[in-house]
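Justification of computing resources. Each target in the renewal requires a structure prediction run like the one illustrated here; the chain below, 307 residues long, is used simply to show the kind of job we budget for.
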Amino acid sequence: MNAILGALETGLIYGIMALGVYITYRILDFPDLTVDGSFPLGGAISASLLLAGFNPILVLLISFIAGCLAGIVTGIIHVKLKVRNLIAGIIVMTGLYTINLRIAGRSNLPLRLDTSTIFRNNFLFEMIPDTLVPYLPLIVIVFLSLGAKFILDWYLGTRSGYLLRAVGDNDLLVTVLAKDKGTVKIIGLAIANGLVAFAGSIFVQRYRAFDISLGVGTVVIGLASVIVGLAIARKIPLIKVTSAVIIGSILYRMCLALAIRAGLPASDMKLITALLLLVILVISSERIKKAKPEVSPGRIKKAVPGA
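Resulting structure tokens:
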């Protein structure tokens, strides 16, 4: 039971991160590696500020803003300095490694036992009945993940959100509407990395420790969650894509938990993650091939006169 609860909690936290990857990967068609730096950025800021006595909720907000700034820097490097999107993300990710070390002061920063977090504070202990205390972390994480999902759904339904989706599908449409597609792309990267840093802050507050290697493989986990979520959304059209992405993240963490329960050592986690992503990509590519039947040259000639 504890393993299931742990996988569910971690899956929901990474689900918020996957929402950010969904914006870059699916909406903007932007291979953004900044997330490998912005996830631990939120964690480093959280650990440092919580130890300094800051309010845990305020720490979440500051982490989100810091992630937005990281996304803005990536966007400016790509849009204004004309650096390729992949390289721009790598540059910011590399720079964030040093910045995260400077913020935290060292590579590993645990929280003190008396440090208040969003999961452990006097207000919650007074409000929640004793019978629900064991499930308090899960309740808080569900509330935060659903809040992030609904706010993102609302934003994507606004004029700015429609422009953001248009940039990935047809950037000429944005130009026709007299809007700067570069600015829209920067906004999208800011929101995406803000969500990722927000998830990093929740992760550190839940597990009460920051580590500089926290963000290694974040983009891989996010991509796997998004791909699984998109597959779910295709099968069940009634589910919104954002909901499917969070469900995909939970399923992904459950698979990892089952692999460890089967006897694989925790040190093999990254290898398991890579193999799972490979399997997901192969399955999804096979589905695409089956969905797009081949067209023979003879049929093309019949369809196009003079071919």
